[in-house]
Design goal:
The protein has 13 helices and 44 strands. The protein is α+β, with helices and mostly antiparallel strands. It has four domains: 323 residues, Glycosidases (TIM Barrel, Alpha-Beta Barrel), CATH 3.20.20.80; 138 residues, Jelly Rolls (Sandwich); 131 residues, Galactose-binding domain-like (Jelly Rolls), CATH 2.60.120.260; 114 residues, Jelly Rolls, CATH 2.60.120.740. It has an eight-stranded parallel beta barrel, surrounded by four helices. Strands 21, 35, 38, 40, 42 and 44 form a six-stranded antiparallel sheet that branches. Strands 33-22-34-39-36-37 form a six-stranded antiparallel sheet, with no helix packed on it.
């Protein structure tokens, strides 16, 4: 008896571990046409991408937990080959690239994992995630039926699979990984590679299956996948997607909740209503596995961004770059996920019936033998709200919306009706504080150290050649920088009296360039395949022309993308008496990288180098200048950004960690931007942009875990010239939280909206507020019951206002972390605003 009791205790403990952590038992993963099947049960998967190298290990548990709280039950990530195999067989899995630790954190959270091994990933990541060294292996052509490419690709894939098997991280071993992906969006390019592309796609599938990982493989955007590999969809909308095989479930691997930013471009946004519409339509039309690309975008630290992609990879995602929930998007999608999960049994096991309710109006009904029933009512008209009849009831369907009825009667959620709280987030500036561990005793003034590079060749040139070489083939992406210099002698009679007519005409494949003549900066053109006419001033005698060619990330995707070059292709001198002089015929001297990079000024012993010169007044607007300062960590515990608005372009490090490229270049004021985005109608990445004429990226994320309490070494390399004394830390703070509810726009987090037209709800409307972290509601900035208008941070009273609004809200909410304000007669005078749709708007401060 004792043995049986002891065994029972052990089994119960094991079951608890399985329930709490998802650990302890292997489980079978298969699929049919309806869904992924785990241990014989069909599962509905709502996943969110979190890319482990785009955050830091200290952030991973919080990001995964916030995703889980948002109703996500799986995490998806690429595997970033060039971050792991630094050179052939030289592997790295530490810090931000500790893949195993990340997967285990997902596991401990009790969530599933979708791992996109690739190993080509695109992802706006440098070189598409492929190591640059592979391009220089003789005979290699990426992503086709090419033996060197296939050898190294399979070798790395096998390494990753074996690593994860050793840690028992596949579901077949009791781990969280339920799906794995090979290649990435290859169907978009396969035809361009001819027969070799077709053979390669089939080889990928066969190679992946040979790894025997015990879970299904997927290939996204691939139209010729052989069974049993599942092809999947990537797009803003995937409700019309049909898998190649009738045996496969409908999987959406990339739903883009926003878009990435490029230097010099405005900021894209995607409204929460449209994302929710797209997701609801996908499940309405039989989808069962959905993933947000991305749920948290993160940061392209160091030099990991693709060409011209900003250091910020925020992506307007439900969790922002700094790890904070983005409201109302995060909350609206959480409510959507809850509504969809109420439909899971009927969606995955019931029979589907599709009905037309009128032009652009559809109902999809799922009925299951046990009696469960779920319905989706959609209005795809992008302008007109509709009233429809469904099962003898009347429903109001706003334009471009889906209503979800988990019982085929009551509306739990409508995609166009955002009831989640919203928020105002500020970047609160904080001056750099001299570290107490500094040798400088005057802690009120920063003591800087500087190192100024001389334009041109330092030390001995690496080589010289007549004409120009490809930048990338020369640096092999070991640095952004390549010095190119020559000299020419001009007799006085060759120079026109009007020196302003002298122009240096340069052509470059990109990405940026600084032009120096006789050590003086003349201009800084940038772009892809650009031509620039730069006025210069020459003198009689010897003139030195020095060009600093720069890359801003490498191309991340495209047919034969690895052959895309960069750098100078032509340099001509115009404005001489004898006409144009083609400098391509001159001997040019080349030097790879900056002197400061070779001296390691940003890390290790380089931080103590004798090349640094101390000063209380660092030079301003000085090109090619390295700055170093010791600072204390910013106060409190909010996420931190580095404000570089007063600098021009360069690189930044903290304690040797690479913050990334900074370049607060303005977007064009002539770009298309909006003050208000109409979510109705199909979305594209340029539909809802903001920030035209403003800096592309002002703040640069520095993870809190990179800071020590004091003695933090901040190093900046400024290329063109800025004012380092204006550099600031900025704390990302939620300054206000808001809730806005209306009698015709109920807060869906608080009630099930039955919404028969003109019939009152049985449940009172509720405005819900919740402060982040451990903060409490410290004050009420605005409250009005009546007909207020506006948005969070800019509410205004209307013609009708209950004067007790503020006192009522204060009584309910002050000094609480969260509160619910019900629109009842006990709280507000319902006699106000007769014959008017009444609303409550509240803005509160958390502290």
């Amino acid at each position: 008896m004792w043995v049986k009791s002891k065994l029972l205790v052990v089994l119960v403990e094991a079951l608890l571990l399985q329930l709490i952590y998802g650990q302890g038992f292997d489980y079978n993963v298969s699929y049919d046409s309806r869904s992924i099947i785990i241990n014989g049960e069909r599962k509905l998967i709502i996943s969110g991408s979190i890319h482990y190298p785009r955050s830091v290990p200290a952030m991973w548990p919080g990001l995964v937990q916030l995703a889980k709280e948002g109703g996500v039950n799986a995490i998806e990530s690429y595997v970033f080959w060039n971050g792991h195999e630094l050179s052939p067989d030289n592997f790295y899995f530490e810090g931000r690239f500790d893949l195993v630790n990340f997967v285990k954190i997902v596991h401990q959270a009790g969530m599933y994992m979708i791992l996109r091994i690739g190993p080509f990933v695109a992802a706006e990541w440098n070189y598409g995630g492929v190591p640059v060294w592979l391009h220089y292996v003789p005979g290699t052509v990426f992503r086709t039926d090419n033996e060197p490419w296939k050898y190294y690709m399979e070798k790395f894939t096998t390494y990753i699979v074996n690593l994860l098997k050793e840690e028992k991280l596949f579901a077949s071993q009791g781990g969280p990984i339920i799906l794995a992906q090979i290649e990435n969006e290859y169907g978009n390019y396969e035809k361009a590679y001819g027969d070799g592309g077709k053979r390669y796609a089939q080889w990928c599938a066969k190679m992946a299956l040979s790894k025997n990982i015990g879970v299904p493989w997927i290939m996204c955007q691939q139209w010729d996948t052989p069974d049993p590999v599942i092809n999947t969809c990537n797009a803003f909308y995937c409700h019309d997607f049909t898998p190649v095989s009738a045996k496969s479930p409908k999987i959406w691997t990339e739903n883009w909740p926003g878009w990435f930013k490029s230097f010099g471009s405005p900021t894209p946004h995607r409204p929460a209503e449209d994302i929710a519409y797209a997701v609801a339509r996908f499940f309405q039309k039989g989808g069962s596995v959905h993933n947000y690309y991305v749920y948290h975008g993160g940061t392209n630290f160091g030099r990991t961004a693709g060409d011209y992609v900003t250091t910020s990879y925020d992506y307007d995602a439900p969790i922002d770059e700094y790890g904070l929930a983005r409201f109302p998007k995060w909350g609206h999608l959480k409510e959507l996920h809850g509504a969809i999960k109420l439909c899971e049994k009927a969606l995955l096991n019931g029979e589907r019936t599709s009905l037309s309710l009128g032009p652009l109006l559809e109902a999809d009904v799922y009925t299951e033998t046990s009696g469960s029933c779920a319905a989706f009512l959609s209005n795809s008209d992008n302008k007109t709200d509709r009233i429809v009849q469904f099962r003898n009831m009347t429903y109001n369907l706003p334009a471009w919306s889906v209503s979800i009825l988990p019982d085929c009667k009551n509306v739990e959620f409508n995609s166009a009706k955002v009831g989640s709280q919203s928020s105002v987030i500020d970047m609160v500036s904080e001056e750099l504080q001299q570290s107490a561990s500094s040798d400088n005793r005057d802690l009120k003034n920063l003591q800087w150290e500087v190192f100024v590079e001389k334009p041109g060749i330092w030390g001995e040139p690496d080589f010289n050649i007549t004409g120009f070489v490809d930048h990338i083939n020369t640096t092999k992406d070991t640095t952004d920088y390549l010095w190119v210099t020559t000299s020419l002698y001009l007799d006085s009679n060759e120079i026109l009296e009007n020196n302003s007519s002298q122009v240096l005409s340069v052509k470059s494949k990109g990405h940026a360039l600084h032009v120096f003549v006789n050590q003086e900066l003349q201009g800084s053109p940038s772009g892809t395949d650009f031509t620039a006419e730069i006025p210069i001033s020459l003198k009689a005698g010897i003139n030195e022309i020095t060009l600093l060619s720069m890359t801003v990330g490498l191309t991340s995707a495209g047919t034969l993308y690895e052959w895309v070059g960069a750098g100078l292709t032509s340099v001509e001198l115009k404005g001489l008496k004898n006409g144009t002089l083609d400098l391509a015929n001159f001997t040019w001297f080349y030097k790879i990288g900056l002197q400061g990079e070779h001296l390691n000024l940003y890390k290790g012993d380089g931080l103590k180098s004798s090349n640094w010169i101390s000063t209380m007044e660092p030079p301003k607007q000085q090109p090619l200048t390295w700055y170093k300062v010791l600072v204390d960590a910013p106060s409190n515990n909010e996420p931190i950004g580095l404000d570089m608005i007063h600098m021009w372009k360069g690189l930044a490090w903290l304690n040797g960690e690479q913050i990334g490229r900074y370049w607060p270049i303005n977007s064009s004021k002539y770009d298309s931007c909006v003050d208000h985005c109409d979510y109705r109608g199909e979305f594209s990445q340029k539909k809802c942009s903001t920030g035209c004429g403003e800096p592309t990226q002002r703040w640069y994320h520095i993870p809190r875990s990179w800071f020590k309490p004091s003695g933090n070494v901040l190093v900046i390399f400024e290329e063109r010239g800025g004012d380092p004394t204006q550099i600031r830390f900025s704390k990302r703070k939620v300054s206000s939280i808001c809730s806005f509810v209306s009698e015709d726009h109920p807060s869906l987090s608080a009630l099930s909206w039955t919404s028969p037209v003109n019939e009152p709800n049985d449940v009172s409307l509720t405005a819900r507020l919740s402060c982040p972290g451990s903060t409490l509601i410290s004050s009420i900035k605005f409250a009005s019951f009546g007909d207020p208008s506006g948005a969070c941070g800019s509410y205004t009273r209307g013609d009708c206002h209950d004067p007790n609004s503020v006192s009522v809200v204060e009584k309910i909410c002050l000094n609480k972390s969260e509160c619910d304000i019900k629109l009842t007669n006990d709280n507000f005078n319902q006699a106000f605003c007769p014959n008017t749709v009444r609303r409550l708007a509240v803005e509160a401060v958390c502290g």
